[in-house]
Each structure stands twice: as C-alpha cells, then as structure tokens.
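Input.
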Amino acid sequence: NLSLIGRADAQGFFIYGAVKTEELKTAAREAIARLQNGEANLAVHPRCGTNLVVAGILAGVAALIALGRKPSVRKIPDVLLATTLAAFVSQPIGLQLQARVTTSADARGAQMTGIRESRWGNIPVRHVDIAWHADEKANRLAKKINQEKLK
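Output.
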C-alpha cells in the first residue's frame, strides 16, 4: 500500500514518497498509454487542488449566507450545517470543473524522457520528465484548415 502525493507541472509531474524508480517508470508509461487510448478519467482526482478550492469557496459563501447581516453565536449551528452541505455538494462540482476546465487529459505526443530524483527533507521526490512531440497528423490537419480559411 503506497502513500504518495503527486503534482503536475508543464514538464511532467512530481511524485513525493517512497516508490522504486523502476515501478514509477512502468506506471508512468502505462498511464501515458492509457491516457492516449482515451482513459480521460485518469487525469481527474478527488483530492486535486481544484476540488479543494471549490470546497473552500462554497463553504465560505455558505457561512456568509448562514451568518446573515447580523452574525451571532446562535447562528453557529446554521453555519455548521451550511458549510457541511457546501462541502458535500462541492465534490461533484469540483470534479466537473477539474474535468472540463483545469485539467487536460490530452496526452497526444506525450513521451516520458526520464526521471530525476531528489529529496525534500526526509521525503524522496521524483520528477517524471515528459516531452511533448507534435502530433504530425494534427499538424497536417491544422495546416489544411488554415489554408482553407485563406481561400
């Protein structure tokens, strides 16, 4: 049972935690292949930062509404109920926002080029380097569309 944290950047992604480099390499290659084969759900995760932001915003708004214009200690149960409900409804909203706006599952042209190892205090950190090679078919199609627009 692995306990890992991941974070993406423009050049690939970081994995924080103890995992063997060869296992990570195998898993990364498999994930890229699965994304390239249409498994877009792999790019969406319930503990993504998008979901946390949505939960925070909805809970904050719910608390403000529950407190009203005249905050008082008597409204604490209302605030607790409102923020709990906001946290509950934030999950599906956050997942949809992540899937449609903040995360791309498009892995066309993605290829793992290496893994760099470092440490963050006592925590092993690995960066999986991803190179993005232009999809030749997509480039030809874009050229054709642009030429059609010029006519």
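The longest helix spans residues 76-102.
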